[in-house]
């Protein structure tokens, strides 16, 4: 007896062979499980598969990051090694944005937005390795002189 | 030039580096200047080059001129001024 998951249709390899177009069209909308003896496969829309993989991948990273709380306090992380260059406040801000963006992406499926958020934080951490940028973070630029360029 | 375009100002401490970048990457720097004058806060217009920084540097944007050279700037939308605060080049 095959248990259905994800509201999938369960067919055998003969069904697939005899009605390919029908099952391919169905698989674009929801998974189609194919059984052939002891073998069990799933035909799945690639975009849906990409979303599921990304969810699993990033959820694992976030859970690991949560477990690293004590390690992060000491300035380290195995999941996001670059956080060591961020201030404590910035790490808290990153954690909040990580959770809120992940929550949003679960609904929107806009993984590009999630990856861009991570890229921005990586760029920030890279910038903070430069003493000039660290100084800039607390500099009152209104006292600096600027020159107009064309 | 459009009345809505931005003025670019470079921090004096960074002027030499800015000009060095212009010498080394004339096309890339022209692309940067065109971008800064038109829509300096629109990271989506240059997804692979522009990032909005976070945390202690949230005032700034970063534009990647090359794989190793960066320009960082702040934007005053009211006065329509872009202030380049950091440029990494070889003076």
Weakly predicted, low-confidence segments of chain B: none
Any idea what the shape of chain B is? globular
What topology, given as strand order, has the largest sheet of chain B? 1-5-4-3-2
The arrangement of helices and strands of chain A along the chain is EHHEEHHHHHE
Give the overall average pLDDT of chain B: 91
| Beta-strand share of residues of chain A | 5-15%
| Straight-line N-to-C gap of chain B | 30 Å
Question: What share of residues of chain B is helical?
Answer: 25-40%
Q: Structural class of the secondary elements of chain B?
A: alpha+beta
Can you tell me about this structure?
- The complex is a heterodimer of chains A (150) and B (91).
- In chain A, 58% of the residues lie in helices and 12% in strands.
- Chain A has helices at 13-18, 20-29, 46-67, 69-73, 88-108, 111-127, 131-136, and strands at 9-12, 32-36, 39-43, 146-149.
- A 3-stranded mixed β-sheet of chain A has the order 1-2-3.
- Chain B is an alpha+beta fold and 91 residues long.
- Chain B has a 5-stranded mixed β-sheet.
- In chain B, a hairpin with a 5-residue loop joins strand 3 (61-64) and strand 4.
- In chain B, helix 1 packs across helix 2 (26-38).
- Chain B is globular.
- The N and C termini of chain B lie far apart (30 Å).
- Classes of the chains: A alpha+beta (150), B alpha+beta (91).
- The A-B interface holds A 86-87, 89-90, 93-94, 97, 116, 119-121, 123-124, 127-128, 130, 132-133, 136-138, 141, 144-150 and B 7-13, 15, 18, 33, 43, 47, 51-57, 60, 62, 70, 72, 74, 83-86.
- Strand 4 of chain A pairs antiparallel with strand 1 (7-11) of chain B.
């Amino acid at each position: 007896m095959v248990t259905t998951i994800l509201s999938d249709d369960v067919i055998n390899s003969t069904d697939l062979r005899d009605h390919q177009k029908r099952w391919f069209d169905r698989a674009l909308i929801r998974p189609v499980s194919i059984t052939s003896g002891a073998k069990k496969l799933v035909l799945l829309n690639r975009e849906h598969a990409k979303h599921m993989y990304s969810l699993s991948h990033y959820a694992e990273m976030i859970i690991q990051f949560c477990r690293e709380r004590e390690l992060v306090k000491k300035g380290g992380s195995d999941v996001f090694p670059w956080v060591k260059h961020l201030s404590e406040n910035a790490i808290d801000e990153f954690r909040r944005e990580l959770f809120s963006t992940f929550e949003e992406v679960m609904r929107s499926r806009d993984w590009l937005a999630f990856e861009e958020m991570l890229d921005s934080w990586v760029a920030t951490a890279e910038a903070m390795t430069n003493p000039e940028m660290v100084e800039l973070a607390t500099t009152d630029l209104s006292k600096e002189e600027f020159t107009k360029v064309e | 030039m459009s009345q809505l375009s931005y003025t670019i100002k470079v921090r004096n401490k960074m002027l030499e580096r800015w000009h060095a970048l212009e010498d080394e990457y004339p096309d890339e720097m022209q692309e940067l200047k065109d971008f800064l004058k038109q829509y300096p806060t629109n990271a989506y217009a240059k997804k692979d080059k522009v990032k909005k920084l976070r945390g202690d540097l949230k005032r700034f944007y970063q534009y990647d001129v090359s794989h190793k050279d960066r320009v960082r700037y702040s934007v005053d939308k009211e006065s329509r001024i872009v202030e380049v605060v950091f440029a990494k080049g070889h003076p």
